[in-house]
Amino acid sequence: MLSRRYLPALVIFLILFALLAPVLLTGWQSLQRAEKAESEKNYLLAAESYAHAARFLIWRNDLIERAAITSAMGGDFSSAIDYFQTNAPVTEEGWVWHCASHNQLADFSAAVEVCTAGTQNFDSARLYGLLAFAHRSQKGWAAEQVALQNQTRLDPSDAFAAYRLGLLLMLSRSDQALSELTRASSLNPELDSAFQTLRASLAVSTQQNDSSMELVILGNGFGLVQEWELAHAAFEQAILLDEKNAEAWAWLGEAKQQLGQDGSVELNQALALDRKSVNVRALRGLYWSRLGKYESMLAEYLLAADIEPENPRWQASLGDAYARNGDLVAALEAYQNAVTLAPDLPEYWRLLAFFCADNGIHLDDIGLPAAEQALQLAPTDPASLDAAGYVNLSSGRYATAEKYLLQAIEISPEYFSAHLHLAMTYLAQGDKAAAFNSLTVIRDAPNAGIFVGKAQQLLDEYFR
């Protein structure tokens, strides 16, 4: 028999058990519900259940962190941050989601603070990647470069990180830029086109005797691969080195326009510094074109062509300007001057062909021969195939147009101009189903640019 002296202790134990058993049971049930919800990817229910379990299983310090992580996984970043502020992260995963939550809410200053604290606890490629993103969002290029160097040190297989690091090394004019860009291209062949452009930019920049012009060339390279924020930074650096560099001012104006700003102040400053610079005139012509002030656009290109009469680029620009002003005769003559000046360059033959197709003029005697010449010079270039397809479409040769356009798309599946012209070819033949398929390819592509709007116009017109 149990000794009488143990009875009080037993009674106390039984009372405590009676009191604690429901609490423990509730906690374990909430925990099981949380784990089940997380396994089923019902993250918000999991977060709520983890937080509920934590109130009963008070010795489980990991449950609030788990609630925070699953809140973030479910897209409730504000609640995730609240949980993390209650209990600081303990695991690498916790720090990652804490930092990511601030990034998702565009609170980049807090993201930098949290990510930096996380990297002091964990030497983590993921944390450095999130830190790089936060610095990039704040235009902190030097700090982003340091974060990316750490990220690539820990994860050398990340092609985007290597590519981005290469870009930043170009901006800081480091001799390591080319090796990083080369590595990025080897990791992801889709980056090869951008790599070739940037490599050429680096090569030309090293031939400059002037540090300011070196940065202008690098800025041009950034612009060609649509990295306009870095281009903006490069042109600003160029002006700091030489405030009388007219081209740097003009290109800074262009970068500002590309970033949704005005840019006219910089373009006017460029003109004040050098009225005879063809590049200043050309960039001002582009500025007026965007504003729809085509007479001013024409005036700028006339001056550029007068300064460099043997440059086919200005003749082609004149053709565009004359066409926008409604003078098709002068436009045709300018495009023909361009191909006369550069008969071996398919680019100008394509522009001539497109001009004829766009305006429905001289299709048989000028447009089609121009497209054929472009094809002869560059038979596998999707742009040349697209030009041939478009001219044949405009002249009613639908089967031939379809053949060329399908070839262009086969060579370059993301050549959206060819997709658009193919859709127009199908519409001209009454094949609405095929046209719809081509148009939705453009509409749903994440990188179709201006062609999305054109595709949507045709979808609205024919498929309401």
Protein model, in words:
With 464 residues, this protein is mainly alpha-helical. It has a domain at 361-464: Alpha Horseshoe (Serine Threonine Protein Phosphatase 5, Tetratricopeptide repeat), CATH 1.25.40. It has 26 helices and no strands. It has helices spanning 7-39, 43-56, 62-73, 77-86, 92-104, 108-121, 125-137, 141-154, 159-171, 177-187, 192-205, 211-224, 228-241, 246-258, 264-273, 278-290, 294-307, 312-324, 328-341, 346-359, 363-377, 382-394, 398-411, 416-428, 432-444, 450-462. The chain is globular, with a radius of gyration of 31 Å. The model is unreliable at 16-24 (pLDDT under 50).
Features:
single chain, 464 residues, mainly alpha, Serine Threonine Protein Phosphatase 5, Tetratricopeptide repeat, 26 helices, 78% helix, globular
Q: According to CATH, what is the class of the domain at 361-464?
A: Mainly Alpha
Number of E strands: 0
Percent of residues in beta strands: under 5%
How far is the N terminus from the C terminus?
90 Å
Q: Rounded to an integer, what's the Rg over CA atoms?
A: 31 Å
Largest β sheet strand count, sense and barrel closure: none
Q: What is the mean predicted local confidence, pLDDT?
A: 91
The level of helicity is: over 70%
Q: Could you state the order of secondary-structure elements as H and E?
A: HHHHHHHHHHHHHHHHHHHHHHHHHH
Question: What is the structure about, briefly put?
Answer:
With 464 residues, the chain is an all-alpha fold.
Structural topology:
Layout: H1 7-39, H2 43-56, H3 62-73, H4 77-86, H5 92-104, H6 108-121, H7 125-137, H8 141-154, H9 159-171, H10 177-187, H11 192-205, H12 211-224, H13 228-241, H14 246-258, H15 264-273, H16 278-290, H17 294-307, H18 312-324, H19 328-341, H20 346-359, H21 363-377, H22 382-394, H23 398-411, H24 416-428, H25 432-444, H26 450-462
Helix pairs in contact: 1-2, 2-3, 3-4, 3-5, 4-5, 5-6, 5-7, 6-7, 7-8, 8-9, 9-10, 10-11, 11-12, 12-13, 12-14, 13-14, 14-15, 14-16, 15-16, 16-17, 17-18, 18-19, 18-20, 19-20, 20-21, 20-22, 21-22, 22-23, 22-24, 23-24, 24-25, 25-26
